[in-house]
Amino acid sequence: MISRRLALSLLGLSCLAAMPALAAPQDGLARLREALDQVPALLLDSPAPVQGAFVQLSALSLVAGAPGPWDPATLRRAVVGGEITPLATLGQVGVERWTAPAGVAPQQVEAMFGLGRGLALWRLADEAAAGAVMAHLRGRGFRAEGEALVDPGPVPLMDRMSDPWRSLPGPSAVLQQGASLLQLQDAAAAAQLRDQPAATSRPALEVALQGIAARGGAGGLVQAVLLSPVLANPPADPAVLLQGGMEAARKALAEPPAAFPTWQAGLMADLAGPGRAGLVVALGYADCDKAKRAAAEMGERWRRLAGPGGAAAQTALLAGEGVAKGACAALLQVEGAPDGPRNPFFETVWNALMRRQPTPFGG
To answer: What does the alpha-carbon distance between residue 151 and residue 208 come to, in Å, rounded to a whole number?
Structure first.
């Protein structure tokens, strides 16, 4: 069951000259697991292509090669940040305009997890830092309702675009749990979250996490997304088919790709290290034969996506342990030199996903 302790992860961006201690890079995989421990298993039944997004922005020191400050190019590494509503406002208004209403500079925070547009989990450096943000919100007029501080509303459109605490579709409720803050639209929903089994109780997700760990995704995990099984075999999009011209569209319709084995839980992760950029896709299956086929298929599809001169991929099958015993993960790993602060391998698949183009796991 989901515990009452909301230990999680949040964002660490910015470029401020004088500010308190920065959030130190942490084990990104551990922070991702903490986040998934706090959201319900029902998340994995969502038909949204991207079921959830995680950014460990304190890991940007690995990208920048120094503890900070980071230039705008480094900050753009976090390409999935647009899937996390409060973090998306940072990209729209910049660090200084974001920090004032937030009550904390983004580079002082560790990581963030977003679930749709209506829930975000923030992980600050410690309990005192989280308490200081709550005091800031009280000073802004957020009123106490039980455990939560609630925005009395209404929320002007411009605030929704620039204020991370007013960026959700409706007025926010914010709860502190240790060093973490939970932001959602309804304080009563927090109790409902605690009464649901956690996402990590699903063996398919647990084995996917074990797969990321096996491929080196610890302190170097920068960002990750939960991949919906609907991505395995999406319906053909006429607009995408026509991008290559009529002949290519006719060929695609005449020779559709073979069905990809549908997974139960999937993760795509961006890894960073000194002179290193890595992509890992981990798809969790209850049926290990399906996982084996999926691993081989991902390797072949990556070769087509990367082209003759592209980076080589490694594929593997991982048998689950503990809660995941009996489940298996299909793994794809691509690694090479970064393109400045960018991870070209993660971006290749992310951009294809956003454009509804073929990926190593579907389309």
So the answer is: 37
